[in-house]
Amino acid sequence: MSEATEKPTKGLAHLKVMARHILSMWPAVLRRQFYLQAMNGSRELREALAQTHAAHVHNALQTVLVVDLIREVGVLVLDNDPKSASVARAVAALGSESVLQELKADYSRFTFRPGTTEAVQRAIHDVLLKRGLEDLISLPAYLKTIEDEVLSNELAKTIRTVRNKAVAHNDVTHDGNDWKMWQIEGVGLTYGQLDEFIDACTRAIDRLSGIVLREAYAFGDLPGISRQYVDEYIEALVMGLNRQREIRAERRAGGRKSRGGVDE
């Protein structure tokens, strides 16, 4: 084969690029999930929005967040296109014997800080190699868990359907003898189911990054930080809406005084 037509093999290097991309993008998905949870769960915000035109805008923004979450889950987790960087493609790559052999060899290579003594290097090397080989032994069980929790269950099929029909494409479907645009309402997907699925995806991505990259992301730190941000947003919105009500009430009271000369 000539040099011009050669293509790099999709081995461990390709898998690492996919895993690193997924790991770098997933925190943004989780932040949006937390924002949506907080907005849905705030009684104060619901009361402040009640019977206001702002509620229409707020509902539209929530819909945008839901569509965004479904789109990102579809791209980063469920997409089976061979060119995609997704959990589905990473799981498929880990089924390759050649990739597993590369991964096993990679587990024996470590970089140490300058000045680390040979004895310390040897001790760290042995501990990390043992841990890596244990991960490889457990790999079939890891992959089966990801397959069962994320890629092949009924919830995954539902979310894949929503993503393909309502997000990635605008599907036109039969309506008796007529036609209509496909509607998400008929699927019955709930906020709770979407949360459940995203949580399962987070566990899968955490496992994959540990196996492929030998790295961990502090996913557990994200809720506290994100909730602090969204709580400030909700507080500002509630205060603004309540103050808006007060101003309008004051204006109405002022209007009544100017017409009648006295309070009604």
How does this structure look, described?
This protein has 264 residues and is mostly helical. It is 72% helix and 3% strand. The chain has a two-stranded antiparallel sheet with strand order 1-2. The chain is elongated. Mean pLDDT is 80; it is low at 1-8, 170-174 and 179-183.
N-to-C order of helices and strands:
HHHHHHHEEHH
Mean pLDDT: 80
Strand content: under 5%
What class would the helix/strand composition place it in?
mainly alpha
User: How can the largest sheet be summarized?
Assistant: 2 strands, antiparallel
Q: Give the CA-based shape.
A: elongated
Strand order of the largest sheet: 1-2
Instruction: State the total count of DSSP E strands.
Output: 2
Estimated radius of gyration:
26 Å
Distance between the termini: 93 Å
Question: Count of helical segments?
Answer: 9
> How much helix, percentage-wise, in residues?
over 70%
Q: Spans of 5+ residues with little confidence (pLDDT < 50)?
A: 1-8, 170-174, 179-183
Number of domains: 1
What is this entry, summarized?
By secondary structure, the protein is mainly alpha-helical. It has 9 helices and 2 strands; from the N terminus they run H-H-H-H-H-H-H-E-E-H-H.
Q: Could you name the key traits of this structure?
A:
mainly alpha, 9 helices, disordered N terminus, 264 residues, two-stranded antiparallel ribbon, 2 strands
Give the topology, please.
Elements (H helix, E strand, L loop, with lengths): L11 H30 L1 H7 L4 H25 L8 H7 L3 H10 L11 H34 L2 H15 L3 E4 L2 E4 L9 H22 L9 H39 L4
Antiparallel strand pairs: 1-2
Helix pairs in contact: 1-3, 1-4, 1-8, 1-9, 2-9, 3-7, 3-8, 6-8
